[in-house]
Amino acid sequence: MAHAELDRLQACLNFALDTLRNEMNNSQLPPLSQQSLVEHPLDDSTKYLPSTGVFEARRLSLACLGELKNLIQSPLDKCMDERFAIYGVACTDTLIKTGIIDYLSDVPNASQGVPAAELASKFELDSKKLVPILRCCAASGWVRETRDSSFALNRCSRTFIEGNAGRRLNFSMPGHMSVIETIPHWVAESDWKLSRSPEQTAFQIAFNTPLLAFSWIVENPDVLVPIADHLQVFGDMSTPSIVADYPWQQLQTPVIVDCGGGQGGLISSILDAHPSFRAIVQDMENVVALTSSIMEERRPRDIESGVLKVEAHDFFQPQPRIGNEYSFILRHIMHDWPDKEATTILGNVARALGPKSKILIIDMVAVPNVDSTATTSVKSLMLDSRAKGPDYRIPSHFGSASRIVSGSSMHMLTMINGCERSLREWEKLVKGCGLRITNVYPLRAHTSIIECALDTRALM
Ligand SMILES: C[S@@+](CC[C@H](N)C(=O)[O-])C[C@H]1O[C@@H](n2cnc3c(N)ncnc32)[C@H](O)[C@@H]1O
After folding, report:
1. Would the N or C end of the chain have less CB density within 10 A of its end CB?
2. Which UniProt keywords apply (predicted)?
3. What string of pLDDT tens digits covers the 460 residues of the chain?
C-alpha cells in the first residue's frame, strides 16, 4: 500500500541527511556525536558560520524530522509531550542554578558520569528529586545517563557552562512563567483583549505594572544585565552571516548608523570586516553609557579617531543623521513593536534618507503556515539538478523547524504586542513609510536582511 506522506518525508529526510553528511565532509567538519564531550563547531552559531549547504541540509533534516513526528505521533501523546515540555525548561534551569552543570564539566573522567547520590550530597539536595530532573534533561538530549542514576554532560550541555552562549541566552526572567500563564486570559477575556498598545499586554497584567516592558527592565537592575547579555547572544547568532552574506561593498554611503544598536557588537564586527566604513551606534541614554565604556575598551583607536561614535538617540524622535552620507541598520528592533510604533520608528529613519541611503531591517520573516512547499531551498541543495529523485518538498514554513520563528513571535506579542512579520506584512509597513524593499537577503541564521530605500517611484 502506498503511504504517500510517510514515503515522501522519509525520502526527503534521507536526501537531507545524505546531503548534510556530504556537505560536512566538504567543510571538513568532524562527525556529530552525542557521546562526545567536546563542542562541535556547528554547536555555536555565534562563532562558526556553516557553509550554505550545511546550513540548508541541517534545516531541511530538522524540518523533515518535525513533520515526521507530527505525522506519526498520536494526538494524545502530542498533548502530553507539549504539556510536559515546560518541565524541560525548569529542569535545565535547576541544573544551572544548583551548580550541577559547572560541577559536571569539571570532574575528572567527566565522560563516566557522576552518581545522582554523589551530586545530592555535594549540593545538599534530595537525590529523589534529582534523578527525575536529570532524566528529564537526558530525554531532551541535554545530559547522558551513563549508568543507572549516574549522569554526565554531553556535547550539547556544554553550552550551559558558565560564560558559554546557551547559559547567557536566557529568555526567562523571574516571573516570566506567569506572563505565559496569563496569555489565554489576556487574549480572550481581559479589558485589553482588543488592544494593540505595547503597554497593555500579558506582561503588564502578570507583573501588575503600567510600565512598558523595556522601561520595567531598565528600572530593575537585577534583570537588566542578564537581559542585555541575552540580547547580545541572540544578536551574535546572526552576526557572522550578516557580515558575510550582505554585499557591504555595494553600500554607497560612508557611514553606517546602528539604531538601537545595544552594546555595539554588530557594528564592531562590520567594521572589522569592512574598515573603510565609519559607524555610529545609537541607543537610549542609559544604554549608551554602557556601550561607550565597552567600545572605549575594545576599540579605543576607532573612538579616538571618530571612526566609531556612540550617541544617545530615542528612535521615536526625528533621526538627526540626515542625507546621502548615512545608511541605517535596525536589527531586532521592528519585531519589538506593534505596527503603529514600528511605523513611527521606521518613518523617522525614512525621513532622514538620501537617495543613496539604505535601511537594513534585520529580523525574521515569518512564513504563513499554509501548505505551500519549500522547493527553493531544497533546489539549492540539489547539486546535480538533473537528478530525478523522489518528491523532496516540505512545507515552506519548514514545519516544526519554524517553531523558533513562531515562538519568537509569541514572545514579542506577550511582552510588548510586537510580532515576527511575514513578507506581505513587511511590504505593507515599508510602503507606509514611503520606502520600498529593494532586496531580501536570506541569512544562514533565523533572520533575513530586508533592504529598503526611498521609494522614488512614489514621487513621480
Ligand atoms: C532587542 S534589542 C536589539 C539590540 C541590537 N540592535 C542587537 O541586534 O543586538 C532592542 C534595542 O532597542 C533599544 N531601544 C529600545 N527603545 C529605544 C528607543 N526609544 N530609542 C532607542 N533605542 C531603543 C534597546 O535599548 C535595545 O538595545
Report:
1. N
2. Methyltransferase, S-adenosyl-L-methionine, Transferase
3. 889 989 989 999 999 999 999 999 999 999 999 888 899 999 999 999 999 999 999 999 999 999 999 999 999 999 999 999 999 999 999 999 999 999 999 999 889 999 999 999 999 999 999 999 999 999 999 999 999 999 999 999 999 999 999 999 977 788 899 999 999 999 999 999 999 999 999 999 999 999 999 899 888 888 888 888 899 999 999 999 999 999 999 999 999 999 999 999 999 999 999 999 999 999 999 889 989 999 999 999 999 999 999 999 999 999 999 999 999 999 999 999 999 999 999 999 999 999 999 999 999 999 876 665 655 455 566 545 445 555 666 766 676 667 899 999 999 999 999 999 999 999 999 999 999 999 999 999 999 999 999 998 755 5
Q: Is residue 106 part of a domain?
A: yes
* Residue that the C-alpha cell 541598520 belongs to: 329
CB neighbours (10 Å) of residue 78? Answer: 12
The range of the structural domain enclosing residue 214 comes to 176-232
> Cβ distance 272 to 307 under 8 Å?
no
Calculate how far, in angstroms, residue 214's C-alpha sits from the geometric centre of ligand 1.
Answer: 9
Does any ligand 1 atom lie closer than 6 A to the CB of residue 332? yes
Burial of 439 (0-12, 13-18, 19+ CB in 10 A): middle
Helices 127-139 and 75-98, interaxial angle, to 10°? Answer: 120
Residue with the nearest Cα to atom 4 of ligand 1? 262
Q: Are residues 249 and 317 in the same domain?
A: yes
Q: Length of the chain, please?
A: 460
18 within some domain:
no
CATH number of the domain to which 438 belongs:
3.40.50.150
**Is ligand 1 within 6 A of the CB of residue 214?**
yes
CB of 231 within 6 A of ligand 1: the answer is yes
